[in-house]
Design a protein that fits this description.
The complex is a heterodimer of chains A (about 250) and B (about 400). Chain A is built from nine helices and ten strands. Chain A is of the alpha/beta class and about 250 residues long. A six-stranded mixed β-sheet of chain A has the order 6-7-8-3-9-10, with helices on both faces. In chain A, strands 2-1-4-5 form a four-stranded antiparallel β-sheet. In chain A, helix 3 packs across helix 4 and helix 3 runs parallel beside helix 5. Chain A is globular and about 50 Å long. By secondary structure, chain B is mainly α. Chain B has two domains: about 230 residues, no CATH class; about 130 residues, abc type-2 transporter like fold, CATH 3.40.1710. Chain B contains 15 helices and four strands. Chain B has a four-stranded mixed β-sheet with strand order 2-1-3-4. In chain B, strand 1, helix 3 and strand 2 form a beta-alpha-beta unit. In chain B, helix 3 crosses helix 6, helix 8 packs antiparallel against helix 10 and helix 8 packs antiparallel against helix 12. The longest helix of chain B is centred in the middle third of the chain and has 32 residues. The radius of gyration of chain B is 29 Å and the shape is elongated. The two termini of chain B are about 20 Å apart. The chains are: A alpha/beta (about 250), B mainly alpha (about 400). The interface between A and B is medium-sized, with 31 and 23 residues.
Chain lengths: ~250, ~400
């Protein structure tokens, strides 16, 4: 299978702190790739560099054959980003949010409206499309957050902790959506602190800590490195790699 | 560039969509406007209604009422006599005028005609003023009638139409060149000044609210930075300069909404000037809004939190309002004058002075406009240098 994303020696430093340190990995086409790590491991900084928002201090990334540092416009045409935060406009309706971000992704007004309707249907919000997002529940807001990322018709979708603070129903709906998107040919980079989520969804997982990629492989492969794959949980794998000490 | 406009449009749409923001942003300025107008006497001219029962219905009665209606601020409401009596009985009105039957015939015959005034108490200030105006018009009509009759008596063989035309010509000349000319001299420093309300307070309020609304809009940029919306936009095809331009235009749009409310009130309610003055004032407001919007972008770049943005905005707005001569003249020298030169308000208010009332044009205020426009350009350049999308400095 071809690599859709290839990160090579990616590095970033903030105020004397090495946030990301020579990280290299690849994500194959139509793969759901989990990026795991404790708080402050460098996951979000890595995603911000992959999504062209933050320029790396060193290294480069190719997405769909285009360099993030030199051909960021081409890269942006191929990605959709769902950040950790609810990065949307709560005063506006879900439909208005989606149409606006669709226009920003280069769609015409008509295309954006049509895709917004389809996408809201996909995330189960078609009947609330005209309501202001601030009236939504936490789970519904999360689904709008993901729907916005889909408005660029991305080939690669970044989902940064998309299920934080929501009920099991909404979480399940998001899982189903992610799996359906992969089935349609989309590649997904997924970060989460919920290990069972990563175990259920991800084809391969990379574990980051202190800005470095310290483990990489399919969930079963990582489990085998720690113990019996049949009985070992991904949480045990995670704690084994990253340690049990508390993080800031 | 179209994406920059879309960014601006969505910002203005958010402002309108948030009913609370809109209510505070629009209703409070209107309330203040009404208060200041009431307290500082912002009416452009006298306003009053003459309640009239015309029992004559002839030429002279109609002429009298038409002339009364032509007086600035006076409107005429016509009644049937029983309705006028009823309104007075109920104290719905305190003053009424009756033009009795035979009013026109008496004037035409050179016999003293009568206007009856029905009044409860003293009738009120407005009624007394209207009475005085009506007495003046009635005296004019009587004089004209006497002249017409006199001329007709001197030339009994002349056709009545010629007599009327000659008399009308003389009256028109007399009105154009009255034997006694009454002049009003403004005692303010600037000869273009109207009274203080129109020359300082009204422009001052417009500028103050423009500054408040836009600089407080800096909060929304800080909020967007914190919740990641700005950063998310940069992962789309939107370029950083388009985002910057969009936020600048959003500020101008939000400011213009408020400015147009103020100007609309001033022009519709107070009738301060004509359509051209309105257009010129709106154009000037757009320039001031551009300066304030650039200032908001600077505040948004400097502030780390929404609270910081609010306090910086309040400080700047208050400094400019107080030291920019919004509520009192700053004088030609002294510390206040020096401080005022560092405020947008001073130049903006001076630029509005006269333009709002139509006494001056934008061309007359080119120097002030150049300063405000220059501040917009310089502010925009400075803001572009320090504008940040993410909290990590990008």
């Amino acid at each position: 299978m071809d690599d859709f994303l290839a990160a090579d020696n990616l590095s970033k430093r903030f105020d004397g702190v090495q946030a990301v340190d020579s990280v290299s990995f690849a994500i194959r086409s139509q793969e759901i790739f989990g990026l795991l790590g404790p708080n402050g491991a460098g996951k979000t900084t890595t995603i911000r560099m992959l999504s062209t928002v933050l320029a790396p201090d060193g290294g480069d990334v190719e997405i769909g054959g285009y360099s993030v540092t030199r051909e960021s416009d081409e890269v942006r045409k191929r990605i959709g980003v769902c950040p950790q935060e609810l990065a949307l406009y709560p005063e506006l309706s879900a439909s208005d949010n989606l149409v606006f971000f669709g226009r920003m992704a280069g769609l015409s007004g008509r295309e954006a409206k049509s895709l917004a309707a389809d996408t809201l249907e996909r995330v189960g919000l078609a009947d609330r499309a005209k309501d202001a997002v601030r009236k939504y529940s936490g789970g519904m807001k999360r689904r709008v957050n993901i729907a916005i990322a889909l408005m660029s018709r991305p080939q690669l979708l970044f989902l940064d902790e998309p299920t934080v603070g929501i009920d099991p129903q909404s979480r399940n709906h998001i899982f189903d959506t992610v799996l359906a998107l992969r089935g349609e040919g989309m590649t997904v980079l997924y970060t989460t602190h919920y290990m069972e989520e990563a175990d259920r969804l991800c084809d391969r997982i990379g574990v980051m800590d202190n800005g470095r990629l310290i483990a990489l492989g399919a969930p079963a492969e990582l489990k085998a490195q720690v113990g019996d794959p049949a009985t070992t949980t991904l949480e045990e794998v995670f704690l084994n790699f990253t340690g049990r000490s508390l993080r800031d | 560039m179209s994406r920059a406009f879309l960014v601006a449009l969505i910002g203005v749409k958010r402002f309108i969509a948030d009913r609370g923001d809109l209510a505070f942003g629009i209703a409070l300025p209107i309330a203040l406007f009404a208060l200041m107008t009431g307290v500082f006497g912002g009416e452009a001219s006298f306003n009053g209604t003459a309640h009239v029962a015309d029992l004559d219905g002839g030429r002279a009665a109609s002429e009298l009422l038409e002339r009364l209606e032509r007086v600035d601020g006076v409107s005429v409401r016509r009644y049937a006599k029983p309705d006028l009596d009823d309104a007075l009985d109920r104290s719905a009105i305190l003053n009424g005028f009756v033009l009795p039957a035979g009013f026109t015939a008496s004037l035409d015959a050179g016999i003293p005609a009568e206007v009856r005034i029905l009044r409860r108490g003293n009738g009120g200030d407005a009624a007394q003023i209207i009475t005085a105006i009506l007495q003046g018009i009635a005296a004019d009509l009587a004089s004209e009638s006497r002249i017409r009759n006199g001329v007709a008596a001197l030339a009994p063989d002349a056709p009545p139409q010629r007599v009327d035309a000659a008399v009308q010509r003389l009256i028109t000349d007399a009105r154009a060149n009255p034997p006694v000319r009454v002049e009003t001299q403004s005692l303010s420093e600037d000869p273009d000044d109207g009274d203080d309300f129109f020359s300082r307070l009204l422009p001052g309020m417009i500028v103050m609210f423009l500054l408040f609304s836009i600089t407080l809009g800096a909060q929304t940029i800080v909020e967007e930075r914190r919740n990641g919306t700005l950063e998310r936009l940069l992962s789309t095809r939107l370029r950083p300069w388009e985002l910057f331009a969009g936020k600048f235009l959003e500020g101008v749009g939000r400011g213009m909404l408020q400015a147009l409310v103020f100007l609309g009130l001033a022009f519709v309610v107070l009738r301060v000037g004509g359509p051209l003055a309105f257009v010129q004032s709106a154009a000037l407001a757009a320039i001031v809004a551009a300066s304030a919007s650039a200032l908001a972008l600077i505040i948004a770049a400097v502030a780390r939190t929404q609270d910081q943005a609010s306090w910086i905005a309040v400080f700047i707005t208050m400094f400019m309002t107080v030291f920019g001569g919004t509520f009192f003249p700053v004088g030609d020298s002294g510390a206040l004058n020096i401080l005022s030169r560092f405020t947008l308000n001073k130049y903006a208010i001076d630029a509005f002075d006269g333009v709002i009332s139509g006494a001056a044009t934008l061309a007359d205020r080119w120097a002030e406009i150049a300063v405000v426009g220059g501040a917009a350009i310089a502010g925009l350049a400075a803001a572009r240098l320090i504008f940040r999308v993410s909290s990590e400095g990008k």
